[in-house]
Design a protein that fits this description.
Layout: H1 3-30, H2 64-69, H3 73-79, H4 119-122, H5 131-139, H6 141-144, H7 158-170
Helix pairs in contact: 3-7, 5-7
Amino acid sequence: MNSFEFNKIAGAVLGTALLVFGLKALAGIVYHVDAPEKPGFKIDVTEASTGGATGGDKQPAVSLGTLLAAADAKKGEGVAKQCHACHSLDKGGPNMTGPDLWGVVGRKHAAHEGFQYSEAMKAKAADDWTYQALFDFLKKPAAAIPGTKMTFGGIPKDTDRANLLAYLKTLSDAPVDFPAP
């Protein structure tokens, strides 16, 4: 290859680089965007009202007993599909990422054999998993028991949680009765 051929190739490469960098600089001038004061995006989220809350009271419009009386275990089985990723729902099922949930209602916190619970859950070991405790925990586990290993985001709808609790009631040899409406 002679020097003339080399000069043509080098000129084409350098010309292309000059064009690319020149267009980038020109685009920066034409389409100038100021950097934000704080990086990121603000997302406004409003908490959904549960109904009859007054003042600072955040109690649901209806009692848990009323919600559970109207709950559908079959719909709860559909909600429980989220639980299958981390929990076994079978009698004598293995511990997975989370403990087996067979007979969870009425069982003590941090009481399932062979599962390594977080310190936060062990601190509640004297308490029973009542329907109310599960209802509150399933809304947002990290808020109900700060420090829990359960990273699940929660089930925001009261009716979905009630349906899930109705299904969990069926997963027991000695089901615990629902609280009175």
